[in-house]
Write a structure and sequence with these properties.
CATH architecture of chain B: Sandwich
Radius of gyration of chain A: 21 Å
Order of helices and strands of chain A: HHEEEEEEHEEHE
Largest interface: A-B, 61 and 58 residues
Number of strands of chain A: 9
Strand order of the largest sheet of chain A: 1-2-8-4-5
CATH topology of the largest domain in chain A: Immunoglobulin-like
Distance between the termini of chain B: 67 Å
CATH class of the largest domain in chain A: Mainly Beta
Strand order of the largest sheet of chain B: 1-2-3-9-5-6
Number of helices of chain A: 4
CATH topology of chain B: Jelly Rolls
Distance between the termini of chain A: 81 Å
CATH class of chain B: Mainly Beta
Oligomer: heterodimer
Number of domains of chain B: 1
Helix content of chain B: 10-25%
Largest sheet of chain A: 5 strands, antiparallel
Structural class of chain A: alpha+beta
Structural class of chain B: alpha+beta
Helix content of chain A: 25-40%
Number of helices of chain B: 2
Largest sheet of chain B: 6 strands, antiparallel
Shape of chain B: globular
């Protein structure tokens, strides 16, 4: 009887350890996390607009009936990434996530310059180079520093009424997500 | 003679069974710690950040949802009415009051697993701050029921539990530490059954 209780106690201790291990290791091994899903959309270097609910590529979809979402993976190992969009929509917002889906940076149209999206993401070393050479086309860009090399961006806009659907679709379709060309 | 292997097997079964089960259940039940609760509404302003607790990080890795960033907005979930009773599609509800300051808000109905319901096309499954009809004091009342209602109406599914999702876009609420007085709309049950 005593050994039975002892085995049960060992089992409970093991269960507690396993519980903690699973919770802590799950983010590292999950293949269903947002980064895996977004990077499995093979269209690199452009925003991919997500379809309405339910379902969508890799389970990604607009989960809010009035928000229209587009996603894009970026890699800043070789060059900074540049995100641009011209806003003729009532609202837009962008959020940058790293590989572990931690928020790096987020903003909306009220915090932008003239309502347009113009965002450069760079590693600390690239940022130093960017600051040293003043490039006129980057004068109004918002510069964001990121320590990792890869991540994904989520661009959202609103279609509160069916008549605004086209504007939202065009906004997302014309948004660009590309590597920053080296300055001349 | 089979006592020792039996005890080892027991310990291993308990460890693996309970450990795995409890981890999965814990991730189903909660989005993590650090939520802010206002009446029946709960939000997790830290869920998408690096400061999120391990449960929130494990949950978001498993759910794989595209979360809202801090400057984008904040999502509130409600699974009960203001008295704490679970939301059931067999009942009718009234959501009334004000939302915290936000440039735009949307309200929609989802299933208990946070997936949207697919109702017949044409039925209103959501409402937003542009389309909602307000009273003179800018407060609003939204009726939730299976049958059509006058004024603001959001249709419910045929049966079963459901959840309400209120998304505030461009809101200072996300950064608030509870210092600001936040007013959320109340969810009142107005009747159950076909009566």
């Amino acid at each position: 009887m005593r050994s039975f209780v002892y085995a049960l106690a060992v089992g409970l201790l093991g269960a507690a350890i396993l519980h903690i291990v699973i919770i802590l290791m799950l983010p590292r091994f999950s293949e269903r996390d947002a980064f895996s899903r977004v990077s499995a959309l093979d269209d690199v270097h452009s925003f991919v607009a997500l379809p309405g609910t339910p379902g969508g590529p890799n389970g990604l979809a607009n989960d809010n009936p009035y928000l229209r979402t587009a996603v894009c993976t970026f890699s800043i190992g070789a060059q900074p990434a540049l995100f641009q969009a011209v806003g003729a929509v009532p609202f837009w917002s962008i959020v940058l996530y790293d590989e572990a889906s931690n928020e790096i940076f987020s903003m909306n149209d009220k915090t932008s310059v003239a309502g347009n999206l113009d965002l450069v993401v760079a590693t600390p070393a690239q940022m130093l180079a960017l600051r040293r050479t003043t490039r006129p086309e980057l004068e109004k860009s918002i510069l964001v520093e990121m320590s990792g090399n890869v991540g994904y961006a989520v661009l959202r806009t609103l279609a509160p009424m069916p008549s605004l659907e086209d504007a939202a679709r065009n906004f997302l379709a014309e948004a660009t997500c590309d590597g920053l060309r080296p300055g001349s | 003679m089979f006592r020792i292997p039996l005890l080892v097997a027991l310990a291993l079964t308990v460890a693996f069974g309970l450990g795995t089960f409890s981890a999965i259940e814990a991730l189903k039940v909660t989005l993590g710690f650090g939520g802010i609760t206002l009446g029946p509404w709960t939000a997790f302003p830290q869920a998408q950040t690096a400061d999120a607790d391990p449960y929130a990080k494990a949950h978001r890795a498993r759910a794989g949802a595209l979360l809202l960033g801090g400057a984008e907005g904040l999502v509130f979930y409600a699974r009960t009415d203001s008295k704490g009773m679970p939301l059931d599609a067999g009942c009718t509800y009234e959501i009334s009051g004000q939302t915290p300051a936000a440039r735009f808000w949307t309200l929609h109905v989802t299933g208990p697993d946070d997936r949207p319901f697919s109702l017949d096309a044409g039925l209103p499954t959501a409402i937003n701050s542009w389309t909602v009809l307000r009273r003179a004091d800018t407060a609003f009342t939204v009726a939730l029921s299976r049958k059509a209602q006058p004024d603001n109406w959001v249709a419910l599914p045929e049966q079963g539990r459901f959840a309400l999702v209120l998304t505030l876009l461009d809101t200072p609420t996300a950064g608030s530490s509870g210092v600001m007085e936040l007013e959320m709309p109340a969810i009142v049950t107005t009747g159950c059954g076909d009566a």
